[in-house]
Amino acid sequence: MPKISEATVAEHRARQLRNLLDGARALVAEEGIEALTLAALARRVGLSRPSLYEYFRSKDDLVAAILDEELPRWAALVERALGGAAGLDGKVAAYVRCQLEVMTDGRHAAAVALAEHALAQPALDRIRAGHAQLLRPLAAALEAGGVPEPELRAELVQGLVDAAARLAQRRPSGAGAVIDATVAQAVRGLS
Questions:
Q1: How much is the mean pLDDT over the chain?
Q2: Which end of the chain, N or C, is less packed with Cβ atoms under 10 Å?
């Protein structure tokens, strides 16, 4: 029987899961999404592949687990940002700034890269459900502000954010300018 490193099996499994998720994030951040394989992760954390399969049946399960953990934290940041902003323009600006700061700060690089990875439908469904948490506060603010079709408009603002994040990653020294231009575009359009 394998040794456990905690007082209980449940605590051991929780720590091992934490190590696996942290190791996977580090692997993606250091070497890119292509480097994330179950074999590479097993080597990184010192587990056998059969032991790893007790936690994740596939790379899709691993990616979904990372995003399942990251998206609620991200959504809480968005909710706090909107909660501290006044008026509809302020809330839209806070949403855009918060999203882009998170997407470009490096801490969430693995989650951003993984979210763009081609996944099987069940994993995509889990991620979409989690991602919807990010849009809810913005859609609610748009609805409260009398904006027609608030869910559609929130998705369009998110599309602008996604495009800006890709641009900011290509221009790291100009990320601040990209964020400012995106806020202006989301709040005022071309006027």
A1: 84
A2: N
